[in-house]
Amino acid sequence: MEKYIKILKLLIFTCTLFIGINLCQLYPEAYSPEEGQKIEAFIDKNEDLLSSEEKDNLSEIINKLNKYVVLSQEEREYIRECELNVIRKKLGDAQFEEYKKLIEKRASGAEFQQPERFRLYELEKMLR
């Protein structure tokens, strides 16, 4: 009987460990300080393009990430929205729409012609 209890405990421990590892692999960026460092670098690089309100909100998100707090979907969307706003400000509306279409086309796996690749390269070069 003790043998079965030991095996059962080992099985429960293994399952718990396996589930924990898989959850960390699914959502590593949702609550890691490394993600906070990426956002800090984004703020430093684009300081003149971000409003003070955006900087404050992003700083609050960084504080949460440094405390290993899982971000809500709204907070993740806010980060993405700030990134898109910076791209829009750098490129302008017309070039931003062109950039967005090219990125979507590349992501969809559709036929991506050489002129389109070159144009996407030019736009990404402007963003650096």
A few lines on this structure:
Helix 5 (93-108) crosses helix 6. The chain is mostly helical.
Question: Mind explaining what this structure looks like?
Answer:
With 128 residues, the protein is mainly alpha-helical. The protein has three domains: 1-28; 31-89, no CATH class; 92-128. 80% of the residues lie in helices and 0% in strands. The chain is built from six helices and no strands. It has helices at 2-26, 33-45, 52-66, 73-91, 93-108, 114-127. The chain is flat, with a radius of gyration of 22 Å. The termini are far apart.
Instruction: Tell me the structural class.
Output: mainly alpha
Low-confidence stretches: 25-29
Main sheet characteristics: none
SS field, number of helical segments: 6
Share of helix among residues? over 70%
H/E order of the elements? HHHHHH
Query: What is the mean pLDDT?
Result: 85
> What is the 3D form?
flat
What's the total count of β strands?
0
Query: Strand percentage, roughly?
Result: under 5%
Evaluate the radius of gyration. 22 Å
Provide the number of structural domains: 3
Distance between the termini: 66 Å
